[in-house]
Amino acid sequence: MPCRLVFHRINKLIIIPLLLACITSCPRTWAACGPGENWEELKIMGMGTVDKIVFSPTRAQMAVAGSRGVVLWDMENMQTLRVLAGHIGGAVSADWSPEGDKIASAGSGYDKTIKIWKADSGALLQTIESNDANYTAIAWSPDGTKIASSMSNGKVQIWDADSGTLLRELIGHTAMVSSVSWSPDGSRLVSGSSDNTLKIWDVETGTVEINIMADHVKYITSASWSPDGSKIASTGGRHCPLRCAYDLTIKLWAADSGRQLRVLSGNTQWVTYAAWSPDGTQIASASYDGASKVWDVDTGTLLRSLPHSTGPVNAVAWSTVASQIVTAATADASIKVWDTASSDLIETLTEHNGKVYSIAWSPNGSTLASGAYSSDRTIRIWNTDTGAEIRSWVTASFLSTIVAWSPNAERLASAGGVSAQIWDPETGEQIWVLDDASLYSTTMVNWSPDSSRVAVYVSGHYKITIWNVGAGILLLTIPQVYTGTIAWSPDGLTIASASDSIKIWDVARGVLVSSFGERLGVVYSIDWSPDSSKIVIGTTGTNPTLQIWDVLTGTLLRVLPGPIDNLSPVAWSPDGSKIASASSRTESVIKIWDAQAGTLLQTLRGHLGTVNSVKWSSDGCTLASGSADGTIRIWGSRE
User: Fold this and answer.
1) Residue 52 to residue 455: CA distance in whole angstroms
2) Taking a C-beta distance cutoff of 8 angstroms, is the pair 182, 224 a contact?
3) Rounded CA separation 442/350 (Å)
């Protein structure tokens, strides 16, 4: 609850206790807050999604490129060494220098840079910028002097690794180049493209030596050279004009002629990557069928299947010589290490590698809770100063987990299944299960400002249930509420819901007080102004907007342009001066608006997936966002 507003419409007898609680839970000052301009990313939490795994030459360390940037792991103790964070939106690819002393990373999406880092310290040594396209992959040459990059505009570029000078552009593909790999002697490159061709290039002359019509489904997802230089492995994608067609194969090609040698079959979904074992005798796949499969290269025999996940495996790499494989999957939020001889799972590394669905600040701003998509079912508590995970526990949710912190900081509520739960955030102990035997599909949970009650929306039965948290008993049911979002007013007297219209409910009697707004479309999110006089909603549909309404009169005060792609979580700042909104995958941005003037103050970029939740800290000085890219980001001013 906003600290400066505790006097609004509250009985005088409880002013003093609330004020004392407020003083202890709000250490920051209002004067320290900036206007919402010149904000930047202050902290990133969560492992994020994974795009590429690559091992150091000694294979003692692992670099994981993804939405966090590049995360370095020590493979002996399975601990994080450091995070190389400098790309806006994360890294799509990474590679080690042959000596293992440096790492190159390529930015994802709108970050059109290659960055070179010192591996032992994480110091940024150099940034190479692209002016015309996005990077899709990079590879360091075997002699360490050059870096090759593949581009979304169909080019392959070769850079001087020391100076960052562009040495050569390889022109020939007619669509995005998704993959690039050096021959072991460094004289040639192979590139795979969405034009469904593999091209083998002479690096010195920049000419195409061999052009292979790979005949994969639609496009090529990866191309890699065997350790001895004699073969090339390629994988294909999917094509979904009406009914989807999937490429289930890995194809092997003779590097000297382009002749097809073998087709490796056994996947049941399309393959995103194929990785050679260090000795070149085996190949492992990453596939959308949820497993990594291993083949004998000479015979084409499927040796084993490593069942990582119920969803896509999006990265795979070999560790020590033919003995360990590392796989990453977004669906079950993990990186897993396997023994290839026994197929035994050795280690699981997890930290919301999957999608973050909801977040909630603790009242004093020192910690933050997050809930994940249904494939994860984990609640995590984070230290907002260090970015470290403090504790976590698994819920019974079968839906995406919603979290909400009580205003007095003593309890955490969650929803997302057949019941709602009340937790002790200090221990993860479950205090209450709120279940009246009919709470099918609990999709929202809100605290009353005095922390004595919670409101749970039950989408399966279209009702709001209000519970006494101290006793764990049901106080009131408001039936026939057709909505996807609810919000308890800061004065504690009403609850707002919104679907095709906005409805205000009296929480003491459970009756409808007012209804306004017609044919709003689908309302994704709703929030109150701190003085309980106005409501902001985020709508989806063909014309998504942010709308500010006067609650007393039911008048539409202002319409702000919404996201271009339908999703808009909204949050009103504690001092009432700003509104934050967010959008889904096409933009994946957060916008900060002047609540009075309706002007856009700033657009915050960094997330690579749908931004599902935005929340202000209690002092309004920072904003947190949770995304399907697997990260939580904290935004604010460093001034």
Assistant:
1) 42
2) no
3) 26
What is the end-to-end Cα distance of the chain in Å, rounded? 26
What is the band of 83 on the pLDDT scale with cuts at 50, 70, 90? confident
For the segment 534-557, the average pLDDT, to the nearest whole number, is 90
| 382 close to 388: Cβ distance less than 8 angstroms | yes
* DSSP SS3 for 13: helix
Q: Which of 2.40.128.50, 3.40.190.10, 2.130.10.10, 2.160.10.10 would CATH assign to domain 353-636?
A: 2.130.10.10
pLDDT band at 606 (very low <50, low <70, confident <90, very high): confident
* Count of CB atoms situated within 10 Å of the CB of 250: 28
Nearest-angstrom CA–CA distance, 250 and 248: 7
Q: How far apart are CA 527 and CA 535, in angstroms?
A: 6
| pLDDT tens digits, 222-264 | 999 999 999 999 998 776 665 667 778 899 999 999 999 999 9
Greater confidence (577 vs 439) lies with: 577
CB contact at 8 A, 420 and 411: no
Instruction: Report the CATH number of the 46-129 domain.
Output: 2.40.10
- What lies within 8 Å, CB to CB, of 509 at 6+ separation is none
- pLDDT tens digits for 526-537? 999 999 999 999
Top pLDDT among 243 and 195 is at: 195
Confidence class for position 96, pLDDT limits 50, 70, 90: very high
| Residue 3: DSSP 8-state | G
d(CA 556, CA 219): 49
3-state class of 575 per DSSP? coil
pLDDT digit string (tens) for 551-595? 999 999 999 876 655 667 999 999 999 999 997 656 788 999 999
What residues contact residue 449 under an 8 Å CB cut-off, 6+ apart?
A: 1, 407, 488, 490, 491, 492
| Span(s) in the chain for CATH 2.130.10.10 | 353-636
Instruction: Decide if pLDDT at 196 tops 60.
Output: yes
Closest CA to 616 of 527, 531, 547, 543: 527
Q: What is the DSSP letter of 17?
A: H
Sign of the alpha-carbon dihedral angle for 260, 266, 267, 270: positive
Lowest mean pLDDT among 116-130, 278-292, 427-441, 443-457: 427-441
Where do you find CATH 2.40.10 in the chain?
A: 46-129
Kindly state the percentage of the chain with pLDDT values over 90: 60
Residue 620 Rama label (left phi>0; alpha psi -120 to 50; beta): left
8 A C-beta contact, residue 542 and residue 562: no
- What span, in angstroms and rounded, lies between the C-alpha atoms of 120 and 96? 12
Any bridge partners for residue 286, and if so which?
273
Q: Which helix (H) or strand (E) holds 15?
A: helix 15-25
- Work out whether strand 502-506 and strand 494-498 pair parallel, antiparallel, or are unpaired: antiparallel
Could you give the CA distance from residue 637 to residue 63 in angstroms, rounded to a whole number?
Answer: 30
DSSP strand E in 59-182: where? 61-66, 69-74, 79-84, 91-96, 102-107, 113-118, 124-129, 135-140, 146-151, 156-160, 166-170, 177-182
Position 428 pLDDT exceeds 70: yes
